[in-house]
Design a protein that fits this description.
The structure holds two protein chains of two kinds. In chain A, 5% of the residues lie in helices and 21% in strands. Chain A contains one helix and four strands. The two termini of chain A are 30 Å apart. Chain A is mostly beta strands. Chain A has a domain of 49 residues: Rubrerythrin, domain 2 (Single Sheet). In chain A, strands 2-1-3 form a three-stranded antiparallel sheet, with no helix packed on it. By secondary structure, chain B is α+β, with helices and mostly antiparallel strands. Among the domains of chain B are: 141 residues, RNA Polymerase Alpha Subunit, Chain A, domain 2; 68 residues, RNA polymerase, RBP11-like subunit (Gyrase A, domain 2), CATH 3.30.1360.10. Chain B is flat. At the A-B interface, β4 of A face β5 and α4 of B. The structure holds zinc ion. The site of zinc ion has 8 residues of chain A, from loops. Chain A: Belongs to the archaeal Rpo12/eukaryotic RPC10 RNA polymerase subunit family.
Amino acid sequence: MSREGYQVPTASAGSGAVARGSTGMQDTRSSIMSYLCGDCGGSVHLGKDSTVACPHCAGRVLYKERTKRMVQFEAR
Amino acid sequence: MAPSTKAQWAQPPSKEELERRNTVNINKETVTNTVSTDFPGHFPGEDHAFSIDRFQSGFDITFHQNDQFHASFSLVGIDASLANAFRRILIAEIPTLAIENVFITNNTSVIQDEVLAHRLGLIPFKGGREGLRNFLRFKKGEDAQDYDTVQLDLNVTCTVNTDASPNETDPLKAYHNAHVYAKDITFTPQGRQEQYFSGEDAIVPVNPDILIAKMRPRQTIELSMYMNLGVGSDHSKFSPVATASYRLMPTIKITKPIIGADAQKFANCFPEGVIGLEKVSKKEAGQRGSGYEGHAGELKAVVVDPMRDTVSRECLRHEEFEGKVQLGRRRDHFIFSVESTGQWDSDELFLEAVKKLKQKCKKLEDQVDNMVR
Ligand SMILES: [Zn+2]
C-alpha cells in the first residue's frame, strides 16, 4: 500500500546506465508538486516552470506538504 | 572495703543513653549525632548483631493515611539503609506500563511530533490488575506480542461548531475538539488482551482530563501508540509513584518551663497543632524547683503532636527560648509518604517494594552460595 508516488530506485542487474534527471515512466506526474498556501491555506499544484504563487489568493509563501508516511518516535 | 561495682561500660545502657543514641540533634546551626551506632563492636560489652527475632520485636508499622493516591505510614525500628532501599525501589524498580513508541501518520497541530510523543509518554494509564501483574511481560524481541505490547490510538480533527454563535470567542464552544484530552485516546485489545483488559479493566488514562494539545479547525492528529512495561530507572515515565519519600520523626523536648506570653509565642513558632497550651496546675506550682512556682493558672507550652512539625527551627532563633528546648529527630522512625500515579494503589506499591527487595536478597543468597561451593 504505497501512499506516495515516490519509489526507491533499485539498480537492477544488467542496466547499469540510468539516465540522470529522469525517473522514467513517472516523468510527467512527478514534476507536479503539491504545496500549501501560507496565506489562504489552500492546496497549490505547481509544475516545473510555473510561477511560485497561489492561484486562489496570489500568496507567494508556499509550504511543503508533510509526508504521508507514518513517522515513528520514541516517547522519551 | 566497698563491694566492687562493675565498670560503667559493663552495665546495660540506661533508657536515657538509648534515647540519646537514637536521636539526631537539631541545633541552631548544626545537626549532630547523625550516624547510627547500633552495629556489632561499637559499644564494648553490647551485642548489636542483627537477628531476625530482635528486628521483629522492635519493628512496627502504623498507617496514618491510606488512600489510592496517597499513603502515609510510619516504619519504626528499622535502619536507614533498609528504609532508603524501599524508597528507591518504589521510585525506580517497580514495573509499570507506559507509552514507549508513537507512530504519527499526521499531525498538523502546532505541537511538534517529538514534543507530542514525549507528552503522550508521560500520561499515566491504568488497567486490569490481573492482566498488568500476571499477563504482561517485559518486551524482549523486536516483534510485538499480545503479552508485551498494548496498542492505543489517537485520531482527532478539529472542526467548526456550526451550532455555535458566530461571535463565540470561547474556542471550546466555537469548535469541536479544540482541546485534545487524554480521554480521546482509544484502546484496541490485541489477542488475549480481550480477556484481561475489557469493560472495567480496559486500559485508560488515570486522569481523563490531561490536556495533550490544542487545535484549530482543519488541524488534525492521527497516530497510534505502543505501550510496554518498563522501570523507573530507565525513564521516569515508568515510575509508579509521583513521589515516594520519607522523613524522620521530629522530637521536641521542652527542658525548662515556657510560661505565659512566651508559651503563646513558642506555639506560634511551630505549625498548628504541634504545641498546645495548658494551665499550670496547683500541684506543679507548689512543687519546688519545677520552675512553675507561683505560676498556678498561667498557660504553659506542651508538646502535643511532634509529627506535624516541619522542623523549621524557628523557635531556636528567639532568645527567650534559649536553653529551654531541644529539637531532634528519631533516627529509626521513618514517616513514609507514597503518592501513586494511579496504575497501582499506594499501599500496594509498598508491598511490591518489599517483595522486590526480598527477590534481590534471594538472588544475592544464591550467588553467595555459589561462591562458597
Ligand atoms: Zn492562497
